[in-house]
Design brief:
BirA Bifunctional Protein, domain 2, binds adenosine-5'-triphosphate, alpha+beta, single chain, 5-stranded mixed sheet, Rossmann fold, 14 helices, 3 domains, 7-stranded mixed sheet, about 500 residues
Length: about 500
C-alpha cells in the first residue's frame, strides 16, 4: 500500500479525482448541489459496497474467534428509518441530541460550538475559523494584512468565555462581535406520517441505526436461539441535520452506518470492551488503512456520553484525513453503553423489569450490557480514497494511482486485447465472461494500451490482463501489477485462481 507515514495529501486533488472518475458527486449537482448530501458514482458505489460487504462478512457470516476460543455470534437485522417517536424519547435523542451552536448575527450562518477554533494574535485580534481548516484561516489572515497562523495561539471556542466573543471576528465576517452566545439545536430531521401534520403525526428520520437493534432485541432473543454473549448488527442510512456539513462526505446530513450492539453479562464488560476495541482497530487496518494515518484514541472520562460515564471505556478509531492533519477524524466509536438503552426502552414502553433477559445457565435475570462498535460507511470510504490516492508525476497518462487493496478495489481486473484484430478481442471477451461470474472485471478495448492502463490506475484496478498476438497459440496472457508495474505471464486457465488468491487470500 501507499506509504502513508505522515503524508499530507492535497484534498482538492482527491475531490477532483473523485468527481472526474465517478467516485463521488454532489447530490442534485445539475441544480447546484445540496449542502451535506453526496452521491456515489459507478466506481464509488462499488467501493462503498466492497467496504460494507467486508464488514458484513467479517462481522456476521464469518465472525472472528472470541475470548473463549469459539467464533462469536452476531446476527443481522434490517429495521426502518422512521420508528415510533417514543423510541427517540427513550433513547434520549429528543431531549438530548443537541449540539450547542453559535450564530453569526451578520451572515446568519450557524456553527457547531465545538467545531469552531479561534486564533488569537496578541495586539492584533482574534479570528474564528472552522476546525481543521488551516487554508480558511490563512486566506482570511492574508486579507487582514499578512498575519501568520503561527504568530498566535489557537483555542476551541468552547474554552472561551462568552464575554470575550465581542472581540472575535466570526468565520465569515470581517468585523468582531457578530457571534451569538451558544444555543442548543436538535439534530434530528422531523417529518410527518400520514396526511395530517400535527404533533401526533410527527416522527423523525433516525439519527443512528442502533435504536432499531435495541427495540428488536426481545424478538431476536425469542426467535433466533441466541444467548448472551451475542451481537446484533445492522447497516443502513442515518440522518442528522448537521449545522455545518463539511469536509466532503466526512460530515454529511445523510450517511450510512455499520453498527454492532454486542450484548454481554455486566461482569464481563472489561473483557469484551478490550476485545472489540482491538478487533475493530485491526479490521480497519485489514481493509487498507494499515499505515500511520490510523490511530486508536481512548476518551477521557470527562468527554464521555451520558450512557458511558461509568463504563469499561470508550474509544475512537481515527484516521488522519488531509483536512484534519496533523489531527485525526473519527471513523468508528467503540463504547461500553452499559444497559442504558434496553433499560430505557423497557421503562418507556411500560413493561419495566419484566423485559429483563433470563440467563438459563446462571438462573439470573438482568438487562444485558452492551459494547457498541459504531462505524460510518461513508467516512470509511473517504478514508480508503484518501489512503489510496498516490500522485504519480512520473507515470504517463494517470495523474494519480489509487492504491486500494485488491479486496476493496472497485474493479479487480481490466481485460484488454492488445489490438482489436487477429482473434484477440474474442479471447478477451471469453475471459471476461468467465471472470465476471465471480469478480467485478472490466473489458476495455478502446484506445491504445497506455491509455487503458492509465484509466485503470486512476480507478484503482490492481491487475490488468492483456491478450496479445501469441495468446491464441500459447494460451498465455500477461498480468500487469498496478503498483510494481511488474508483468507476469500466466496461462489463461489460471487467471481465475490468481484473482481468487489475490482478492480473498
Ligand atoms: P462526530 O463527533 O464526528 O459528530 P459522533 O461521535 O457523533 O461523530 P457517532 O454518533 O458515534 O458519531 O456515530 C458513529 C459513526 O457514524 C461515526 O464514527 C461516523 O463514522 C459516522 N457518522 C456520524 N455522524 C456522521 C456524519 N454527519 N456524516 C458522516 N458520518 C457520520
Amino acid at each position: 500500500m501507499s506509504d502513508s507515514t505522515n503524508t499530507v495529501k492535497n484534498m482538492d486533488d482527491i475531490v477532483a479525482l473523485c468527481r472526474r472518475r465517478g467516485f463521488i458527486w454532489q447530490s442534485s449537482e445539475i441544480y447546484g448541489g445540496i449542502n451535506g448530501f453526496w452521491d456515489y458514482g459507478p466506481l464509488g458505489a462499488q467501493l462503498k459496497k466492497n467496504l460494507k460487504d467486508a464488514w458484513w462478512k467479517d462481522t456476521i457470516t464469518c465472525p472472528p474467534i472470541g475470548p473463549d476460543g469459539n467464533p462469536i455470534q452476531v446476527v443481522p437485522v434490517d429495521t426502518t428509518i422512521i420508528m415510533h417517536p417514543r423510541v427517540w424519547e427513550a433513547s434520549g435523542h429528543v431531549g438530548g441530541f443537541n449540539d450547542p451552536m453559535v450564530d453569526c448575527k451578520e451572515t446568519k450562518s450557524r456553527y457547531r460550538l465545538d467545531q469552531v477554533e479561534v486564533l488569537t494574535v496578541e495586539g492584533k485580534g482574534s479570528w474564528a475559523f472552522p476546525q481543521g481548516d488551516p487554508d480558511y484561516i490563512s486566506k482570511k489572515l492574508k486579507k487582514a494584512g499578512g498575519i501568520k497562523v503561527d504568530q498566535g495561539t489557537v483555542t476551541n471556542l468552547e474554552q472561551i468565555p462568552v464575554e470575550d466573543y465581542a472581540t472575535i471576528i466570526g468565520p465569515d465576517t470581517e468585523k468582531p462581535g457578530t457571534l451569538t452566545e451558544p444555543r442548543q439545536f436538535n439534530l434530528m430531521f422531523e417529518t410527518y406520517c400520514g396526511a395530517i401534520r400535527n404533533d401526533d403525526s410527527k416522527s423523525y428520520l433516525r439519527p443512528e441505526t442502533a435504536q432499531g437493534i435495541f427495540t428488536q432485541f426481545w424478538n431476536t432473543v425469542d426467535t433466533s436461539r441466541v444467548k448472551v454473549p451475542f451481537g446484533m448488527a445492522q447497516m443502513g442510512k442515518s440522518f442528522r441535520n448537521e449545522v455545518t456539513p463539511r469536509n466532503f462526505t466526512f460530515r454529511s446530513r445523510e450517511f450510512e452506518q455499520m453498527e454492532i450492539e454486542f450484548f454481554i453479562h455486566p461482569d464481563e464488560a472489561d473483557t469484551w470492551y478490550a476485545y472489540w476495541r482491538d478487533l475493530r482497530f485491526q479490521w480497519w487496518q485489514k481493509v487498507g488503512l494499515a499505515g500511520n494515518n490510523l490511530t486508536l484514541r481512548e476518551h477521557d472520562k470527562a468527554e464521555l456520553a451520558h450512557y458511558a460515564k461509568t463504563g469499561a471505556g470508550v474509544c475512537d478509531v481515527e484516521y488522519r484525513f488531509p483536512f484534519t492533519a496533523p489531527g485525526y477524524g473519527e471513523l468508528e466509536g467503540v463504547a461500553h453503553r452499559s444497559n442504558f438503552d434496553l433499560q430505557a426502552h423497557a421503562n418507556t414502553c411500560g413493561k419495566g423489569d419484566k423485559m429483563q433477559y433470563f440467563d438459563q445457565e446462571k438462573n439470573e435475570r438482568y438487562f444485558p450490557h452492551v459494547i457498541e462498535p459504531s462505524a460510518g460507511a461513508d467516512r470509511g470510504t473517504l478514508a480508503l480514497l484518501c489512503e489510496a490516492y498516490t500522485p504519480t508525476p512520473d507515470r504517463k497518462g494517470a495523474k494519480a494511482i489509487m492504491q486500494f487493496t485488491p479486496r476493496m478495489a472497485p474493479i479487480k481486473a481490466g481485460i484488454f486485447p492488445l489490438v482489436n484484430k487477429d482473434g484477440m478481442p474474442e479471447i478477451a471477451q471469453k475471459l471476461y465472461m468467465q471472470l465476471r461470474e465471480k469478480h467485478v472485471v472490466q473489458l476495455d478495448v478502446k484506445q491504445n494500451i497506455g491509455k487503458r492502463y492509465a484509466r485503470m490506475d486512476e480507478a484503482g484496478t490492481p491487475y490488468c490482463i492483456t491478450v496479445d498476438g501469441d495468446t491464441a497459440g500459447t494460451q498465455n496472457v500477461t498480468i500487469r501489477d498496478r503498483d510494481s508495474l511488474e508483468q507476469t505471464t500466466i496461462s489463461l486457465d489460471k487467471v481465475g485462481a490468481f484473482l481468487d488468491e489475490k482478492i480473498n487470500g
